[in-house]
Amino acid sequence: MKIEKVxxxxxxxxxxxxxxxxxxxxxxxxxxxTEVQDGNDVGYGECVVNxxxxxxxxxxxxxxxxMKDFLIPILLQKEEITHPDEINELxxxxxxxxxxxxxxEGAIWDLYARKQGKTLAEVIGGKxxxxxxxxxxxxxxxxxxxxxxxxxxxxxGFQKIKIKIKPGKDIEMxxxxxxxxxxxxxxxxxxxxxxxKDVQLFKQMDSLRLMMIxxxxxxxxxxxxATLQKAIQTPICLDESIHSLxxxxxxxxxxxxxxxxxxxxxxxxxxxxxxxxxxxxxxxxPVWCGGMLESGIGRAHNLAITxxxxxxxxxxxxxxxxxWDEDIIRPExxxxxxxxxxxPKKPGFGYEINQTALDRYTVETEAFSK
Length: 370
Ligand SMILES: O=C(O)CCC(=O)C1=CC=C[C@@H](O)[C@@H]1C(=O)O
Ligand SMILES: [Mg+2]
Hints:
Helix content is 36%, strand content 22%. By secondary structure, the protein is α/β, with parallel strands linked by helices. The strands form four sheets. The chain has a seven-stranded parallel beta sheet. Helix 1 packs across helix 3 and helix 5 crosses helix 6. The radius of gyration is 20 Å and the shape is globular. The two termini are 15 Å apart. Residues 21, 55, 136, 189, 191, 239, 290-293, 316, 318 line the site of the ligand O=C(O)CCC(=O)C1=CC=C[C@@H](O)[C@@H]1C(=O)O. The site of magnesium ion (MG) has 7 residues, from loops. Keywords: Lyase, Magnesium, Menaquinone biosynthesis, Metal-binding. Converts 2-succinyl-6-hydroxy-2,4-cyclohexadiene-1-carboxylate (SHCHC) to 2-succinylbenzoate (OSB). Residues 143-235 form the Mandelate racemase/muconate lactonizing enzyme C-terminal domain. Belongs to the mandelate racemase/muconate lactonizing enzyme family. MenC type 2 subfamily.
């Protein structure tokens, strides 16, 4: 492959619902779609950043700057790229900025798959034909509202219910769901809202028999998580703390978690995501694919990575209709009544671009060539 042109598009899409987490409420999604071109062949990726640096330190503006001024020039200068695995190494001089790196790396994986006439899942090494799907529910005002919304999603078939929590909106909310629905697969995501001072609360939560608690402690911690994991039975799942294979190795060695949420953007791309998956498989740590409220393009990349066999827990990979009135791909991603999504069969990420929708949501475009 020779990357001759790169296009960045900044998009704004309204979410169908306000999404509340321990760090705020989100009503729209602002992010970047990347396109790489090699002659007539194209590949697409999604930069899953937010407009604010609340989930991680990157924003739409920092990612645009890092791609424009550092990463894209590296790609355009490169005479030949044989395999997308080389991108990690090419970008190595730029520290962190995982979501910016991942957005370009993902587009190159898509381009590579299309050139081979294979699906993204196939070139990644995934064998599944369909994947199991869960849903991530934002913090609700009351127990009654939460119970109602959980009921709705269970009826739709979702195989895992993830409930966002924060101090004051935790054990009682979760208990209400447990009491109403019995032994369903539920988990909680705290987005770093607690400290070790809350260890008693987490011990109490053991009686809820949650599948896991996601990122209870600081976003940059693996030490306190190890202490907490020793004190409780519920498995801890790390999200924000894991940015690389090295982070995963250290967390596993310390016993900081029993499960890892892999987000392609958070770990700097598909290549690193595969490496983390493989390490976790070897260490018998199950993984699942987290979501960043992606559009269809990022979502399709998530489906592809989930086709790897150690993704044994349903991911936050809900269908398009949960988030958008109209997605930017065709057909939209759909889930069956048992909570499964079938992997697409077309080359690359497997869906067509809905160009009219893509243009409608685009607020800024910039193209780069040699
Ligand atoms: O894409 C989805 O449906 C998952 C949404 C979700 O849970 C998250 C999206 C973005 C940032 C976080 O709040 C979060 C997470 O922590 O996993
Ligand atoms: Mg999370």
